[in-house]
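Sorry to interrupt, but I need a hand with the structure work. I would like you to pick a protein and set down its sequence and fold. Please put the record directly below this note.
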Amino acid sequence: MQPTIFATKKLVQQQHEYGNLKIYIDFHAHAGKRGSFIFGNSLQGAEQVENVIFAKLVSMNSINFDFAECTFSEYSMSVKVLPCSVYPR
C-alpha cells in the first residue's frame, strides 16, 4: 500500500473511532467515463438505501456527477478503494 493511502486510511479509521467521522466520500473520475462517480459499498437494508440516495441527490445537484456510472456492488467492494478497505464487509 502506498504511504499516502496508508496514512489516509489510518486517519479515517482514527476519526471514526473518535466519533468525528459522519461520512466519507471518495469521488472518482476516469478518462474513459463521463464526469465523476463513486464506487460505493454494497450494504444491507436502510444503509444501502441511504448509500444510493446520497449519490442520486449529488447527481441531481451537479452536472459533473454521473449517477449512472456509480457502482454499489460486491465487485466494487473487492476493488481496493479507500471506503471499501476502511469499512470492509
User: Anything to note?
Assistant: The mean pLDDT is 80. The beta strands are 27-29, 36-40, 71-72. The two ends are 20 Å apart (CA to CA).
